Amino acid sequence: MQDLVQKLQIYKSEIGEYTATDEPSVEAFRIKWLGSKGLVKTVMGAMKDVPVEQKKEAGQLLNDFKLFVEAKFSDLKEAATASSGGAEKARPDLSLPGDTIALGSRHPITLMRNKIISIFQRLGFAVAEGPEIEDDWHNFTALNMPAHHPARDMQDTFYVDAGSNSAVDWLLRTHTSNTQIRVMEKGVLPIRVICPGRVYRNETISARSHCFFHQVEGLYIDENVSFADLKQTLYFFVKEMYGGDVRVRFRPSYFPFTEPSAEMDVSCFICGGKGCNICKKTGWVEILGCGMIHPNVLQNCGIDPEKYTGFAFGMGVERPAMLKYGINDIRLFSENDVRFLRQFTSAT
Ligand code: 2U9
């Protein structure tokens, strides 16, 4: 009996000192003490050697010991569950919303370019794109700007150093008209095409101008195309772009590649024509240039100007985008600052 009391004392102090609460240790504790071949079972088996008169007392002791071990196991298990985050916590909560995946947004220039393109597409215009590095024929000569023309000045144009063996001058296109020339040279008539793209001019960079910007130009060539067709096409564009209430006016202008030429203004869509900073108190905002294609340009591309006539127009993309989105510095478009870019979504 004395032996049993002593043994239980030693076991109790060993159990009392047991503190490991990771799950494998707690399981090892259970197997050692409470398992089918565990020590609780073993000491219980010692009952049979206890003299009859001491059985009651021994039974009490062993029972207390078993309860003691079970209580310790229960404490260890609870601690293990708490330290592993809890069984409930470990199970994923499928009702929680998923992680937000950051979506990219379209660049405001792309949004404005697509808006312009989609209006002309509804009128049957196809979209054509051309090279940004161009030879002087497609950028200047074919467009009725021969060798001496002032627009070719180094001050205005970025020339590309193609080496002294190059037979032609290479440059960064100053307008997307090079693309229309390439379409015309293919000789498939009639032509109804719009040409969006990036162009380059040797301008000092400031809040209002940059050395590269974007244009959408259009071209319509067929038999009997008149200035009235040009006006009707552009009226439709303005109505779709700025709403049915805006008024339109044409002012005579000059471009080497069109004759006659005009610039088109719309009544200021910011102040409604009353006069504000955007329209410089005039009530009008210039939005594009246009005209009937110069016969020399048709001829340069192998199109008979006696049989065919056409109109062309060109507009910048940055300015309408700045007005629509309230952007006051053109440089923001090319700085790739995500704080700026993420403000635009394809819905706007
Ligand atoms: C061909 C023949 C004629 C395209 C045209 C304009 C007038 C024009 C400016 C608008 C703002 C350039 O971006 S901007 O600075 N463009 O005023 N562009 S007519 O005329 C063409 C094009 C191609 C073969």
Automatic annotation (TrEMBL):
Q: Where does Mg(2+) bind?
A: E259
Q: Which GO terms describe its cellular component?
A: cytoplasm
Under CDD domains, the record lists: PheRS_alpha_core
Tell me the superkingdom of the source. Answer: Bacteria
Domain Aminoacyl-transfer RNA synthetases class-II family profile stretches: 119-343
The record describes how the cofactor is bound as: Binds 2 magnesium ions per tetramer.
One annotated GO biological process: phenylalanyl-tRNA aminoacylation
Q: Which Pfam families match?
A: Phe_tRNA-synt_N (PF02912), tRNA-synt_2d (PF01409)
Tell where it localizes.
Answer: Cytoplasm
InterPro entries in the record: aa-tRNA-synth_II, aa-tRNA-synth_II/BPL/LPL, Phe-tRNA-synth_IIc_asu, Phe-tRNA_ligase_II_N, Phe_tRNA_ligase_alpha1_bac, Phenylalanyl-tRNA_Synthase, tRNA-bd_arm
Which cofactors does it use? Mg(2+)
Which NCBIfam families does the entry link to? pheS
Q: How does it assemble?
A: Tetramer of two alpha and two beta subunits.
Name under which the protein is recorded: Phenylalanine--tRNA ligase alpha subunit
